[in-house]
Amino acid sequence: MMIWITCFALIAAALIATRLINRPSIALPTLAVIALAAGLQAYIEAQTVEGLRPSLDEPQLFSATELKADSSGHYIAKADINGTTIVVMVDTGATGVALSYEDAEKVGLRPHGLDYDVPVSTANGIVKAARVQLRRVEVDNVRVRDVDGMVLPQGVMRGSLLGMSFLGRLSSFRIENGVLYLKD
Predict the structure, then answer these.
(1) How do strand 179-183 and strand 64-68 relate by DSSP bridges?
(2) In the chain, which stretches have pLDDT less than 50?
């Protein structure tokens, strides 16, 4: 908007200097057009600023967060998965996102109807898990879409893990002095 005000002032000064201001048939319509253009530009800029506010489904240019390790050295976070918030442990040693049966139910994956045919190693041995595609996984505005995940059978695991199928899709992640930094 500042450019229009500057242009308006320069044209008005030029009109006064050339004595065209004495001719209302030329000066007034010119000034009216400039004022209208300045108002229109101000309106457009105001609409553009409104449009820049991110919503849940619009891509963001950049987001970052940091997670502090708990007293046992684990990184616990609230993750928004498919629009539902669950508590997860962020685990750089886990191959993918591993959801407990109960958490899968919370996020609407209907685990009772899944095909548990993928053998996976857990702390309790090898079990068969079901492959799923997670539309959106988000931790503190750090968002990844279409994340591969697994659902483990009921009772096999308490809680869920956020592993490399999420972390590997970020622009960066690092651990420094007990803090896990995530950047999309």
Answers:
(1) antiparallel
(2) 1, 47-56
